[in-house]
Every structure is written in C-alpha cells, then in structure tokens.
Design a protein that fits this description.
By secondary structure, the protein is α+β, with helices and mostly antiparallel strands. The protein has helices at 71-82, 84-87, 108-123, 130-138, 144-149, 183-192, 216-222, 225-237, 257-271; strands spanning 2-19, 25-46, 52-57, 91-97, 152-157, 161-164, 171-175, 242-243, 250-254, 275-279, 286-288. A hairpin with a 6-residue loop joins strand 8 and strand 9 (250-254). The radius of gyration is 19 Å and the shape is globular.
C-alpha cells in the first residue's frame, strides 16, 4: 500500500494563441504546483487481473463520479494496459480523499490521474520513466503531463509540451467562490467571443513578470458573479488577483509571507468562501507520503 499527496495546479499566466487543427486550443501557460489544497491517494494491489476499483471520500468528493470516466480510473486502466506484462496480472484499488474542489481551475482531476500513474508505477515496480508516464497522461488530459512533473513549468501546445521554468519562492492566496465553472464551457465562450485577449495585466512578483489570463473575459461571460468575487478579493487582499486557469478560483501572489498571511486572514473573514495561503511546491507535483 502506498499513500501519496496530489497537489493542486495553479496557472499564474495563460495566453490562448488560437485553435489548433485538432480542435484543441494552443496555449502558453506558466504553471506551478502548490501545497494546498491537495488530494490524498492510497493505492493497494488487487489480485484480480487488471481490475480497477475507485473509492471517493472527502469534502470535495460530492458530485464527482467514481465510474470509468473518472480521470483517476482512466489513468489506472491506461497504465495497466500499457505495462500489462510488467504488471503481472495485478489490479489496483484506489482510495481518493478529495480536497481540491472541482470546477475551480486547480487541476484536481489531472493531479489525481498523475498521482495514480506515479503511485501504481511504484507499487507494481513497473519502472516506467517520467517521460513515459507523462506520455500516457497526455492521452488522458492536457494537464496531466504537468502534474506528473510538477514544480514550475511553461505548458505549451495543448498542454502536453512541458518546459521547466525558474520561479522564485511565492506565497499565494487562493480563494474559491461558491460556484464552479466548466472548462469546456469557458473555452466555447472564448471561441464565441472571437478569441479575446485579456486587457487586464497584473504585475507579477519579482522574477516572474507581468501576468494575464486570456480566459478571464470568457469565464466572466459564462459566470457574471466571477468579476464581483474577484474584485472583492482584490479589495480585501490589497493586490490584484488572477483567475486560476479556466476558473472559478482566483489567486493573489505575494513575495512576502507575512503579507500573504495577512491578506489571507482578511479574505477568509470577508469572503465567506474557502481560502488558503499556499507555497509553490518544488519538484514533482505528486509526492509520496509513505
């Protein structure tokens, strides 16, 4: 049995460059792993050949399906099929405690899929490399390769091209509103609005540079309450906020941990929404706990 932490993905800057011939969107995104929120995955071996069982719990579990379309299940099936001979006919039981909210733009499903790839690879001694695991992950979801590597990186293409980035230590306030956003709906709105480029550029922390999220106009079109939530967060934090990926979470990055904690306290009291002050996680985005 192995238990792992799957860390959330935070997009600091997102440029949408257009629509690719395959229907995906061409991206250039600066993304980091953050320490909170995180999901916890426990993997156990099953004697039933290639069987995959998924058990969900935790505060973010309600509303998330535990069937074969769940990204964690899909990752387990894909890995066992890819390494069928090395797996020796084993199956796996996945117990997933969900704390990363769905529909917040924090990559919870992708982080879970990456956790499954890494943990099952370790548990069954499959000896696949990170490159091989990331390639399997790219067939499951565009964010999965980043979550396999974690740390800080530029995601390019549809997200499958990962280029390591140097990001200084950051202290990030993440706030999640009481509503979720559908990633496909936000991208459809971006298309329908003519592919807008965000005009709101946020000064980044030292060593990061100016930040913008081209999905922000589309996300605010899909969910008009988002702009009011972001502006309220900015007033409480005393600094500009950016949409996390396709939303609905918003984030404010600080150089100074004391400033981040103070802003987090004001946001927690004033927003009546889940907030956390988190750090950028170094190394792999999915780490073993035991």
């Amino acid at each position: 049995m192995i238990t792992w932490h799957a860390f959330a993905k935070l997009t600091l800057s997102l440029h949408v460059l257009g629509v690719r011939p395959d229907g995906y969107h061409e991206l250039d995104a600066l993304t980091v792993s953050v320490s909170e929120p995180h999901d916890e995955l426990t993997v156990m071996r099953l004697d039933r050949p290639f069987a995959v069982e998924l058990e969900l719990s935790g505060p973010a579990a309600p509303g998330i399906g535990d069937g074969p379309d769940n990204l964690a299940s899909r990752a387990a099936h894909a890995l066992l099929a890819h390494a069928s001979e090395r797996a020796g006919g084993s199956g796996v039981h996945l117990a997933l405690r969900k704390q990363i909210p769905a529909g917040a733009g924090l990559g919870g499903g992708s982080a879970d899929a990456a956790a499954v790839l890494l943990a099952v690879n370790r548990l069954l001694a499959l000896d696949l490399t990170l490159v091989e695991l990331a390639a399997i992950g790219a067939r499951i979801g565009s964010d999965v390769p980043f979550c396999v590597y974690g740390g800080a990186a530029h995601m390019r293409g549809r997200g499958e091209r990962i280029e390591p980035a140097v990001v200084p230590e950051l202290h990030v306030l993440v706030a999640v509103p009481p509503f979720a956003l559908s990633t496909p709906a936000v991208y459809r709105a971006w298309d329908e609005l003519g592919g807008p480029r965000s005009t709101r550029v946020v000064p980044g922390p030292a060593g990061v540079g100016p930040l913008r999220n081209d999905l922000e106009p589309a996300a605010e079109h899909v969910e008009p309450r988002l702009r009011e939530f972001r502006e309220h967060l900015e007033r409480l934090a005393g600094a500009p906020a950016l949409l996390a990926g396709s939303g609905s979470a918003c984030a404010v990055a600080f150089d100074d941990p004391d400033a981040a904690r103070a802003a987090g306290g004001r946001a927690a009291a004033g927003l009546r929404a889940p907030t956390s002050v988190v750090g950028v996680t170094r190394g792999t985005g999915v780490e073993p706990r035991s």
